[in-house]
Amino acid sequence: PAVHVINGPNLNLLGVREPSIYGTATLDDIKTRLAELCAARGVDLVFRQSNHEGDLVDWIQEAGRAGAPVILNAGAYTHTSIALYDAIKGAGVTVVEVHLSNVHARESFRQHSFISPAARGVIAGFGPASYVLAFAALFEK
Ligand code: DQA
């Protein structure tokens, strides 16, 4: 089995970006943690980040072709992107939507997600552990 972890805009800045909201762990730290979990379970890890919406669409389609579930932090595209919703639906892919921050406790514009209706489930508010919990949701028996 494999899991594709897809990260959207500005997540390359984790660690320096608004640390009071997003913490001090970097995206590389999160990748390292997931790589450990994957190694322990014999799961292949594809871990990516892009600031460009179309890359995220391409990678969701790719996961669909591979039959791999996706852990998706779409960043701000969560709140704007019908294209990502369509990609998830079109690819028929299992998606766990994740957010580091509790988007429901923040600005009102973060409280609507175009991803959620297409997602298998949503995990928000636990920092890097949101990704770990998403992995557990997919692979813990
Ligand atoms: C985020 C929450 C989004 O609202 C924001 O635009 C992000 C990060 C999170 O992980 O908490 O870029 O997805």
Word description of this protein:
38% of the residues lie in helices and 18% in strands. With 141 residues, the chain is of the alpha/beta class. It has a single domain (2-139), classed as Dehydroquinase, class II (Rossmann fold, 3-Layer(aba) Sandwich). A five-stranded parallel beta sheet has the order 2-1-3-4-5, sandwiched between helices. Helix 4 links the parallel strand 3 and strand 4 (95-99). The protein is globular and about 35 Å long. The chain starts with a strand and ends with a helix. The mean pLDDT is 97. The structure holds 1,3,4-trihydroxy-5-OXO-cyclohexanecarboxylic acid. Residues 10, 73, 75-76, 78, 99-101, 103, 110 line the site of 1,3,4-trihydroxy-5-OXO-cyclohexanecarboxylic acid. This is 3-dehydroquinate dehydratase.
Shape: globular
By CATH, the superfamily comes out as Dehydroquinase, class II
List the domain count as a whole number. Answer: 1
Beta fraction: 15-25%
Overall pLDDT confidence: 97
Unreliable residue stretches: none
Looking at the structure, the CATH topology is Rossmann fold
Q: Please count the beta strands (DSSP E, at least 2 residues each).
A: 5
Strand arrangement within the widest β-sheet reads 2-1-3-4-5
Rounded to the nearest angstrom, the radius of gyration is 14 Å
Q: In which range does the helix fraction lie? A: 25-40%
Overall structural class, as computed from helix and strand content, comes to: alpha/beta
Question: Which sheet architecture does the biggest sheet show?
Answer: 5 strands, parallel
InterPro entries: DHquinase_II, DHquinase_II_CS, DHquinase_II_sf
Organism: Methylosinus trichosporium (strain ATCC 35070 / NCIMB 11131 / UNIQEM 75 / OB3b)
Binding site for substrate: 73, 79, 86, 100-101, 110
Pathway: Metabolic intermediate biosynthesis; chorismate biosynthesis; chorismate from D-erythrose 4-phosphate and phosphoenolpyruvate: step 3/7
